[in-house]
Each structure stands twice: as structure tokens, then as C-alpha cells.
Amino acid sequence: MTSDAPVVLFHYPRSPFSYRVLSYLALRGIPYDQCIQPQILPRPDLARLGIRYRRIPLLSIGRDVYLDSPLILERLERLKVGKPSFASQASPDQQGLERLLASYTLDTSFFMNIVKVLLPTTPLIRNEDFLKDRADMAGGGPSMNFADVVQATRPDAIVAVKNAIEFLETTLLVDGREWLAKTDAPGRGDVETAWALSWLFSTPGAVPEEHISPQLFPKVFAWVERFQKAVAAAQKSLPTITTLSGEQVADLLGKAASDHTSDVIEADDPLVQANGFQVWPIDSGSRHKTVGQLVGLTSQEITIETTEGEVAVRVHAPRKGFRVSAAAPDKANLS
């Protein structure tokens, strides 16, 4: 991308996955603007761009919109803006640990257990609109009692989260290091791990103190607090963040150049023969499929250009955890 390509984060306050990306942006010193979204559907700002994907956050660079926080961070690692990337400052051993930590927090039940511990302690557990929205995202449909599921499994979730915290306390942090990969400042490993625990620890009344507390796990709580302070200090050093309306973002992206100048379609991939595509995550939010023309397809990434909004944007999704297929006949021939 060029240095003046706009970077816009679509998020809402207190979104834990957004904090993951916000932490990265702050620690790298990457300037960005934001478009605040409702916590639940509908999200007309995204519909205006032809995006049905329903999870938060999303990040646009120029006219390209990136879905899913792992792909967002991978794209930001290649961004030649702000401070040097984390990868450029880490040894192979440190990079390996960072990848393992990312997999631990995202590919296991780690985060979902934190949700089950936290949610019953908040007013959201009694908010019918929120519960219906999250039942839809989980794929359970309107008959699914999301609140009952979360509350019934909370005791087991407390044990699982406690075990995860104990793992950090007695292994990586046991030697008194400040940061997980022994970096001089917060590194990618800290970004990949601290976001979820920060969300839990900073939510009033969410931590079951008889099982999880600074007295029981002083090193983990001190590490999370160090991380929060480092991110807060870095955020203060960023240029002023402008909050844009959906109309402003659509106008901005409509005039912006594409982030990718040479998208690749791997000719031997069996999906490339279809004319129109829809893409969606397979774990949550799978009912909401974004439709568009295929412009990039590799073993790592899917890129389609939207065909249903007022402004066409290029939507990038990771191959891992997402599904891409030919769209229905009435959608496939859209241009």
C-alpha cells in the first residue's frame, strides 16, 4: 500500500477481538481512523459496502477490507507504516512461540470459556436482543436459549480458565520475565494472549475471586496490567483518531486505491472455475455470507470484490476457518 492509504477500523467499544487489533495498532504506532458499529445487527455501514459478514472487528486499508483478527494482524505486520513489525524484531524461536500462543487463544476453547465466565455477570445476560443476536451468530437459531447454555456451563469454564492462567503463571512467567517471549517491550506474543484476559480482568464483577485473583496468580495479573498500561501509553502517542460515519467511510473507500495491485488466483484450485462466490466463517456467524466476484484465491487467503453494496470493495478472508463456494445462480453472474 502507499503511505497515504486510509486505515479504518470497524469496531465497537469493549469488543475483546477489537482490543486485540487496537493493541497492535497502538504498539506499532500505526495511525488509523474508526467507524463505530452497533454491538448487534443490523450494521448498515457494512451493508453499504456489500459486506454481510457479521463479526467485529474489520479493518480497511485503502479499498480493501480484511475480516478476522488473525488476518488483520498478518496484514498489519506487512504494513510499512509506524514502528518496525514485530516479526522483524523477533528471533525464530520467539516467532514460533508467538504463533503457538495465537493458536492457543483462538483455536482452542480458551476464549469461549472466558465468555462463559464473564457473560453471566453482566447485564447482557438479560438483554433479549443481545441474546437473540448471539444465538444467531452461534448458529443456534431463535429457539436456542443462549443464556441458559452459558450459565449452565460456567462452573466448568471457571476451572478451564483457571487452568489456563495457572499454565502461564507456572511456565512462561515463572522466571519473572516482563513479556511472554522475553522481548524488551510488549511483543506479538503478548498481543496474541493478553487481549482475552484483559477483557475478563477489566469487567467489573466478572472474575470469580475465590478461584482467580491477584493473590493466587500474581505474575499473570501483573503481566496483564503491564500490558494494559503499555497499550494505553502507546494509544496516547498516536495521531488524533477520527470517528467516521458510514457515509464518510463509503465515500473514502469509493475513492481509495486498492491495497493489492497483484492479487493471485491459483489456477489449480478447484474453486476457480465458478463465476460468482460467497464467503463466510464456519465457526460463528455462518448464516451471513458476503457475495462477490473472485479476485484472489490462494491456500492462505480468499479475496472477492463485493457486488451487493453501494460501493464495491475488496474483501479479504483467511482460508483457515472460512468457507468459500460458488454463489447461487442468480448471484453468480453479477458483475
From TrEMBL:
<dbReference type="InterPro" id="IPR004045">
    <property type="entry name" value="Glutathione_S-Trfase_N"/>
</dbReference>
<protein>
    <recommendedName>
        <fullName>GST N-terminal domain-containing protein</fullName>
    </recommendedName>
</protein>
<dbReference type="InterPro" id="IPR036282">
    <property type="entry name" value="Glutathione-S-Trfase_C_sf"/>
</dbReference>
<dbReference type="Pfam" id="PF13417">
    <property type="entry name" value="GST_N_3"/>
</dbReference>
<feature type="domain" description="DUF7962">
    <location>
        <begin position="118"/>
        <end position="236"/>
    </location>
</feature>
<feature type="domain" description="GST N-terminal">
    <location>
        <begin position="9"/>
        <end position="83"/>
    </location>
</feature>
<dbReference type="InterPro" id="IPR058268">
    <property type="entry name" value="DUF7962"/>
</dbReference>
<dbReference type="Pfam" id="PF25907">
    <property type="entry name" value="DUF7962"/>
</dbReference>
<dbReference type="InterPro" id="IPR036249">
    <property type="entry name" value="Thioredoxin-like_sf"/>
</dbReference>
